[in-house]
Amino acid sequence: MKSPMEKLRQLALAAGFVLMTGASAFAQDAVQGKKIFEGNCAACHSMDADVVGPALKNVHERRGDEWLHKFIKNSQELVASGDADAVAVYEKFNKMPMPAFGGSLNDDDINHVIAYIKEASAAAPVVAAEPAATTTAEAAAPAAAQEVAFMDLPPIVHFIYGLVGLIILLIIVVLVMLFRVIVPMMGDSLKDEEFQTTFSGRVYALVSGDATVMTGKAKDEIHSNHDFDGIQEYDNDLPPWWKYMFYVTIVFAVGYMLHYHVFRTGALQTEEYEMEMAQAALIAAQNVEDPNAVTDYEVLTDAGALESGKAIYLQNCAACHGQAGEGTVGPNLTDEYWLHGGDVNDIFKTVKFGVPSKGMVPWQGKLTKDQMLEVSSYILSLQGSNPPNAKEAQGEKQ
Q: Where are the transmembrane segments (predicted)?
């Protein structure tokens, strides 16, 4: 018969074994859950931030395992049942339905995913990575022009500005002095009607405060014997300023016609637009992170690249676009209709920069350029495959 101390020791060993095997099993579940999560959930969910769907950190504490099972299997069924939490999530994320995983994940798979969420939620926050070193292309890009304060300009520039200002001031002073000397010398001749009709006389009158040269003189002469209920028409010329402006417009119109339409030395609006767009494309091309940067990628057709693109698609895109590209939450990728362009460069940009307003996450930083080109080429290879249960066409035919 075993002593009480031996029984106690055996019980302690058994308890330790159970705890160790249980912890090992939980860890193994989390490892398996991470694989399932990355293959099905990571495209739309993050632990710490809302992406297409909500952040999942501590979601097991807020909702419970049973609720998570139901939501993962068929979120829309839970929404239709009126579940308050499911409806709140559905409304918050623009009524974009989460794909139903009841047909592709069993209860054990979902348990593994929940185990991974619990483990990831308990982990310490990840420290933000240091900014990447400046690339050669970024270093080679011309530095943006910086404004320089006037007082920071070289002394020679200050001297030139001062000299020009002094010359202008001297010219004004000389003109004023000449005017004050010459005008008294002319005496009563300034009032002669003959002098007042000359250019000099008009300038003198304008400087003296007489604006007749610009406004003209009002005449009290009736233009005709017309009388409309006491309203009569006087023979007044158009104001000189109006006529001068009219003459200027005539000269401008002739010069405009010769410059743009006869000699063709100037660029018309269409040409200016095309030139500005070309300049903008060159500037955008210097920044690889600019969505407007022009790219000229060719579709990859070799089997290795397409197989790699397929693997990337199944891991990252199938959750929203279907295993065969038939479309679920996202649009159908196998027809001729495209929302954001069907050229390989258009698809590449959509994959790289995403369409956050439509729930399409940007994949730059998660996939390399080669990987994005491979998956873009694979998507184009799906054209015309006509998978079952394909989603209706969206966008424009191309």
A: 159-183, 244-263
Same domain for 388 and 327, yes or no, is yes
Strands 337-338 and 396-397: antiparallel
**Interatomic CA distance for residues 151 and 113, integer angstroms:** 64
Range of the domain at 184: 155-224+232-247
pLDDT tens digit string along 196-211? 778 777 777 777 777 7
Q: What CATH number does residue 105 fall under?
A: 1.10.760.10
Q: How far is CA 154 from CA 148, 192, 345, in A?
A: 11, 55, 48
Question: In angstroms, what CA-CA distances link 274 with 281, 291, 347?
Answer: 10, 19, 25
Q: Residue 222 in contact with residue 235, Cβ under 8 Å?
A: yes
In a domain, 193, yes or no: yes
- Residue 114's nearest CA partner among 150, 70, 151, 160 is 70
The pTM for the full model equals 0.43
Instruction: Kindly give the residue spans of alpha helices, DSSP state H, lying in the chain.
Output: 4-40, 59-63, 65-73, 75-80, 84-92, 107-122, 136-140, 155-186, 193-196, 199-207, 212-215, 240-257, 269-285, 303-316, 318-321, 344-353, 369-381
Whole-number Å distance between alpha carbons of 192 and 328: 94
Asked whether residue 278 is assigned to any structural domain, the reply reads no
CA distance 53 to 320: 12
Q: How far is CA 35 from CA 50, 74, 112, 165, in A?
A: 21, 21, 9, 75
> Does 254 map to a domain?
no
Each residue's pLDDT tens digit, 61-112: 888 888 888 888 888 888 888 888 888 888 887 676 777 777 678 888 888 8
* Measured CA angle at 387 (ends 381, 389), to 5 deg: 145
Phi and psi based region of residue 362 (left: phi greater than 0; alpha: psi -120 to 50; beta: remaining): beta
346 touches 340 (CB < 8 A):
yes
Give me the number of domains the chain comprises.
Answer: 3
| Residues pairing with 338 in the sheet | 396
In a domain, 268, yes or no: no
What DSSP designation does 136 have?
A: H
